[in-house]
Amino acid sequence: MPSPTDVRIVDSADVSPEARIGAGSSIWHLAQVREDAQLGENCIVGRGAYIGTGVVMGDNCKVQNYALVYEPAKLGDGVFIGPAVVLTNDTYPRAINADGTIKSAHDWEPVGVTIERGAAIGARATCVAPVTIGAWATVAAGAVVVKDVPAYALVAGVPARRIGWVGESGVPLAAGDTENTWVCPATGDRYIETDGTLTKETV
Length: 203
Fold this sequence. Notes:
about 30% strand; globular; mainly beta
């Protein structure tokens, strides 16, 4: 772990000495970061958030208050996790086995949520593993994601469905001047839609 001058960890946080925390990161009150978790540089873990064993986070991620990031989740650079978001890890959850014995760590196989670069998960959304959230996608507050989300998609609802596209600024895209083109009102960037996927036009 980096020296205390590189990382801010408040006294009430519970951070395993086996976690790796990148320089410039902050772990706030009552947060828990479990063993073998890997946080990149300049990450923020908010009050009461949970980062599970072996979770991998890229640089510049924000995990807001009381979010639960269960292993083996993988977060790319610049991912935003809103307040009280849940990333699950058990496809068939049970507290006991069929014979009534208590389930142990050996009785189930954890599966993770993968969130790619720049994507944002809104407050109280739930991502049910195994799913992948594509780069720069936005999951609306309160949504329940049960299938993969394409890059740049805006999804909402229970279960979550695509209701539009967003650009890298996070602003919903507007229809362009030709069929299957989209434009970001904030940046002017142009995107091309092909068979349900979106790609950014290169200059």
